[in-house]
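FIELD: query
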Amino acid sequence: MRVTTDRPTELRFDDGDPVRAASAVARFGDGWLVAQDDATHAAWLRPGGVERVRVLPPVDGHETFSSAEGTKHLKPDFEAACPIGDGVLLLGSGSSPARMRACLVTPGGGRTVADLTPLHHAVGDALGLADGHLNLEGACVVGDRLRWFQRGNSAAGVPSASVDVDLEALLAAVAGAGSDRVGIGGVRRYDLGTVAGVALAVTDAVALPDGRVIVSAAAEDTPNAVDDGPVVGAAVAVLADGHEPEVGLLPHPDKIKGLALRSSGAAGAELLAVVDADDPAVPSAALSLRLSW
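FIELD: result
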């Protein structure tokens, strides 16, 4: 598989503030919704500019969160974004108690927030993870299931993996039915290779019409699921049941955190990707990826 990219473009809101910590992207109305994992607002990339979209009320009076402010433990960490009807479902990573929420947001200003703590714990149990190792960073809809991806960590001995979640039951849980009865199955584990001795770990996913899944991956040298570390390599991979992953390394070690499908066909696919700079003062970026197979 061959991967080509264009030059990254800075993401800023219409008032000039940077889009922080871009962690996921999905089609939304007449544009794209970009989650900020350390803020209560997402960024709506529209033809005329970039608007804020509230996804959570203030948390203990805070709208943004960082280590420098001593508020990182409060951040929602929405790491996955899936188009659902005309809206987008945002899902927390589950890497701490504050990161086990979901938000279903619609272009008309609708917003439904739910606590998914029981479901996050059940996913961790299904994957056989010890406390503190859950880090769900990507999701996509495959048929009537939501495939939810665990970002691996080679330093902790945790592989990248996924589970399939009953989508109808999940949406009912977000609407208020509770998440303790959402069905989980289809555990898969992935080996995407290494860069400079660091394993490539899944950071987001999108489904193709034929059932295959494209994932982004980063080789980030970090000891756990919370702290950032140097990214020594990046890739995209095509996953198909019964086949080894088809991996294409990116020319630069950009920390791609979100993928959205623009188009696909027999010869390849074009994706919109968002990149996290791991610095709240530095704008996140967007770029196109073109895959040929």
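FIELD: remark
The helical segments are 117-126, 167-177.
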